[in-house]
Amino acid sequence: MRWHKLVPWSVALLAVVAIQAWASATGDQLVYRKKYAMGTVFEIVAYGPSPERTARAIEQAFTEVIRLDHVMSDYIPSSDLSRINRTAHYRAEPVPADLYKVIQQSLLYSRLSAGEFDITVGPLAHIWKAEIRDGTVPTEAEDEKLRRCVGWRKISLAPPDRVEFRSPCMAIDLGAIGKGYAVDRAAAVLRSDGIECALISAGTSTFYAMGSPPGASGWTVHLRDPSGKLSPEVHLSGNSVSTSEQPLNPEPGKAPFGDIIDPAQGVPVKTSYSVSVVAGSATASDALSTTLLLMGPTRGKALVKKLPEVAAVWISRDGKCEMFSTGPRISVNHAAGQKR
Fold first, then answer.
1. 103 is in which domain, residue-wise?
2. Sign, CA torsion 101/105/108/110
3. How many domains does the chain have?
4. What is the mean pLDDT of each run of 10 residues along the chain (340 residues)?
């Protein structure tokens, strides 16, 4: 599950203070807008010399996000993803360029993680989300049957635009990468409209920073800390951070719970960690945060070691913290115990 809990928009408030002081000298002004899309709230704070022009650029970025929702959503029956989930079994179907690219990138993360990241968990995610909604727990037989539908190697791509499922019951779920891709596309739209400095948030779980606020080296983003002890933060400029966390089961000790599925076990992963990942793109940070939550700190740090300009921090509910970085710096409260 992506971290949907809304926190105070401290980033924007800090930006207001900095930008107001700078605006009198440069004429640039802050513009903030938000839009509900992809089942969450997208927020953009940007600044430029013309508030009207900046606001128009932000609205165009939101229009792009909404367009992508109608391409990648598995909740919208008419979306392109829903269409191939119905029709691409043993049949190569044409798809829009964005969907092809997201699936292609997803398979790269599947290879990189030896299958820990797997967008074909759609059938399993569907039945376990029912548990979150109404408490319906799938039987072992139902879960076992759907596990046979899963497997990233059963996706076949035929350039430039065709996708085939080599399984009679496969379904793709892009919840672990789609919002990140939408954030990257929103940033591209802002750049094309001349915006150089902005911060984009998708549900406060994925951020992408363009440029940096005046007088600062980057945008300060406060990260998820389930322990409430460590106050982790990162300074972004031209890169992204995403956080993944499995929700707490309201009935501890009962059935597995959550919507981040372990593809090997066929059930929601059980972990006390929240994972935040810094990477060069929102697509990468989004996909890697899910991957590293599934892998855990030991195997996850071994994966991060292979990736340039990536950092990850695992924080448990009891305050245990483990980090690894090949470049970016994540700051935590060093007074608390920490393991690197």
1. 79-165
2. negative
3. 1
4. 38 43 62 97 94 97 98 97 98 98 98 97 86 72 89 98 97 97 98 96 97 86 95 97 88 73 91 96 98 97 98 96 97 63
